[in-house]
Amino acid sequence: MGEAGNLSFGYWVRRRRMALDLTQAELGKRAGASAAMIRKIEADERRPSRELAEMLATVFALHGAERNTFLCAARQPLAVEALPATPPEMLLHSSLPTTPNNLPAPLTSFVDRTHDLPAIVRLLQRGDVRLVTLIGPPGIGKTRLSLRVAELLLEDFPDGVWFVDLAPITEAELALAAIAQQLGVRMTAGNALTREVCAAVGSQRVLLVLDNCEQVITAAPAIGELLRGCRRLKVLATSRIPLQLYGEHEYAAPPLSTPPADALPADLMTYEAVELFVVRVRQHQPAFTVDAANAADVLDIVRKLQGIPLAIELAAATLRRETPASLAASLRETANWVRTLQATARDLPQRQRTLADAIAWSYRLLEPAEQRCLRRLGVFAGSFTLEAAAAVCADEEDAAQTGLVAAWLESLVDHSLLVRESGRWRLLEMIREFARTQMSAAESHAVQTRHADYYHRLAPPAVSAPAEMEADYHDYVAALHWMIAQGDAARAVSMCTSMVWFWETRGYLLEGQSLVRQVLALPGEVETQRRIDLLSHAASLFWQVHDFAGATAMTEQAIAEANTDCLPGALPSLYNSLGRILIEQGALDRAEAALRQSLTLARQVGALNPGFPVLQLGEVAFARGDLAEAARRFDQADALLPGDGVQLPRAILHTDRAELALARGDVTTARRELLQALPHVRTHVRRLRYWLVALAGLLLADAAPARSPLAAFEFLAVEAALNRQGAPISPLYQPLLARRLAQAKTQIDPETQAVHWRAAQRWTWQEAVAKAEALLLDQA
Q: N or C: which end of the chain has fewer CB within 10 A?
């Protein structure tokens, strides 16, 4: 120990790495850090965290006093001189593991899980942990992860690291014999095998890696006996089911990190799922890279496969005969894609030849009732509640037995076939596809009908809080598609009407339009009032994407049907909607006529708050430049509109008043109105854009000189994020937006604009809202 001279910690790390013949990237992978971090450590620019120092010590094969010294030196510069001074040229040979082991040599490279690997290693290095079970669904990579962990722990268990593959074992009582065989223990007459194994292991520091424990789960008590009889033995097990032994530490092996849908091509290789895909493709296409031409397809592939290593490896193998584009299309369009991904390697076990084989391995371990439950859960398009599961999974005689369904769900979670998250459950995409293939045509029809019945009952009223539909949105859509396919016009109209407000507020305008057209084209009797409701609400989807002809035709059709069937109560709202459509087109005279008709009818029949048409008459006046008349109308609307709750009219009113104040040069009033509008615009992407245009006017008019460029950038960035939501801005606001965008761009150099614009492309709508709020609150 000890070395003279000016030895820095970074220099010592570099010498040790070079002696081990590792690149900075390779060391980073093994230690769960980036190559950039290793570079900074070696340059003495950064010190490793405690966790990273622990992993570096493991990779460097440091033990006992040397390990403690290294950990101290990592945090305290004065301790560097005490680091081991083993000649660098000797380190490579002296650090090679000498622990007896039978770990199978890897045939392919390991794509390190930067979080999981160090976490599991640390867990097994703890003195109070004796049993760790890696839990996870089929194909998640439990075996490979356990072997990599075992490699890193060879020096921690000098008496042996032994791998036992239990996959070929079909009888639980043979599991202990397989363990004994790998340990070299021979049974002698009159002695129990457990006692023989305990006697052989004794007080040795041994690690047992038990792979595929799920099919011999009843042998788990024997593992517990071994742990009690061998005080320095530790077990790392892999299983799709917890062993449920005292002292067991479960570690749920997650999918590989997967890029978001809007990830930039340059960032894809930083995600584990993409890295694994590329590494495996290069086994047969050495020159393969992710580039601008294939980035979108690679992104689609790994996202569809949800970071499941087996699925990714099988997909990579198909690129022997396919292109990334054709594979991505196949995964999108093929109903039973789980069976189409097949391995070409002849030496893989049957359960790893296809995704379907891997899942079927777990499916066969379920009880018949659990199998039936899993099959039926395949109908869900997204996550679901216990009540939803009971509606589709329980047979009629079990309809009230929610507790029984809950037990099935828990069992499926235990078998790693179902994911529990925040009071809801979710199937991985590959398991959902498998489950659907297990249903007969008759069972599938019955289950889809139950599913549609449940979501039809659950659907909130039209123009209700969109948050009520958020979590179940994909299942609402699936239920609506089923109703359309069955020609169930009445319920499809009802469901579609419930969904329009969600499509509008969330910016799903094109999807909503498509479904509305399909529903309106269905033959069959539908109550006139219900049909009018759908036409009225759906027209907003059309004019918001500037299909004014479609929106006008729907509204005029609804007016005609209301007159024909003598439904005067529907007319005020319909004329108010027509006024909105005409305002959006700049047809101000016709808009005023429609709105005055709406106001007259509203006062006659009382079916609409007159504040709605009055507010829009104020917008007509504002568009004409009559600021006094606009202010009068806005004040009238303020007195008439409801004051409680979050509502779209209030968002419009306060945003319009802010623009009016800006037109008068009154930034104080504009700021106050925008603050009042804020609670009402958060959940409506289109109104948020109008609000943002007004906010830009305020920022550009009132920002301090030092703040003005930053305000301009943030406005541009938020606008870029919101522009992706598919909600075109009104022709009335387009000149304002264009003028303010141009003004903002003059305050920032083009390079800075491009950098921040790219950053904004990654923002979710919610993040854009938060940025917009921060802009205003910073001005308040």
A: C
